[in-house]
Amino acid sequence: MDVTQAIKERRAFRSLDPIEITEDLIKDLAFHAQLAPSCNNNQPWRFVFVFDPAKLQEMRAGLSQGNEWIHAASMIIAVFSRKEDDCLIRDREYYLFDTGLATAFLILRACELGFVAHPIAGFSPKKTREILGIPEEYQVITLVNVGKHSAAISPVLSPKQVEWEKARPERFPLEKFVYLNSYHQE
Ligand SMILES: Cc1cc2nc3c(=O)[nH]c(=O)nc-3n(C[C@H](O)[C@H](O)[C@H](O)COP(=O)(O)O)c2cc1C
């Protein structure tokens, strides 16, 4: 699979079938995340790969309403970072940006391997920190939920989520976010 194919095929599917989580898979995903660029090569990203069934069960307590589909995930990757671990150039804080880049690489690799890797913001960082033992100075940025796309639509999805399962949510036209040579107000 080439890059454009992985980008086009990646979807935030919510109907998941189980997959086997192996040390090789975790190392593979971490290896691809690690090759992302970062300011001054600071590599501020940190990941907890959660696949122990009891721990996955515990993590349900931190999920927001509407994210019950995650109960079917075989692995949840907690992505976290802290601003001191990356460039701080006046008011520009790069830790979120660089961790996002690494996470995108990880997600695309998972897609290439035939898996769904779906990031979310609908969770409690506080509860997640408590459950996983992550110190308070870290920002838990996202949970990436991993499984295999199921052809059977998950019964816990809302009508909107079912719609998104069937077709990719529409994107803005390029004119909305692309400017040539200088910015201009819409
Ligand atoms: C930062 C972020 C937060 C998200 N939060 C959630 C979430 O809490 N629950 C959920 O079901 N999907 C969540 N999503 C998935 C988006 O809804 C999805 O990526 C978007 O609708 C576009 O669909 P596509 O990724 O299939 O193209 C999130 C995605 C990102 C990048």
Write down the overall mean pLDDT.
Answer: 97
Unique bound compounds: flavin mononucleotide
Strand-pairing-aware structural class = alpha+beta
Separation of termini? 38 Å
What does this structure look like?
The structure is a single chain. The chain is α+β, with helices and mostly antiparallel strands and 186 residues long. It has one domain (3-176): NADH Oxidase, CATH 3.40.109.10. Helices cover 32% and strands 18% of the residues. The protein has helices at residues 3-9, 23-34, 53-59, 95-112, 125-132, 159-166; strands at 16-17, 46-50, 75-81, 88-89, 92-93, 116-120, 139-149. The strands form 2 sheets. Strands 1, 2, 3, 6 and 7 form a 5-stranded antiparallel β-sheet that branches. α1 packs across α4 and α2 crosses α4. The longest helix is centred in the middle third of the chain and has 18 residues, at 95-112. Bound molecules: flavin mononucleotide.
List keywords for this structure.
NADH Oxidase; 5-stranded antiparallel β-sheet; 186 residues; two-stranded antiparallel ribbon; binds flavin mononucleotide; 7 strands; alpha+beta; 32% helix; 6 helices; single chain
Indicate the topology.
Blueprint: H1 3-9, E1 16-17, H2 23-34, E2 46-50, H3 53-59, E3 75-81, E4 88-89, E5 92-93, H4 95-112, E6 116-120, H5 125-132, E7 139-149, H6 159-166
Antiparallel strand pairs: 1-7, 2-3, 3-7, 4-5, 6-7
Helix pairs in contact: 1-4, 2-4
The structure holds flavin mononucleotide (FMN).
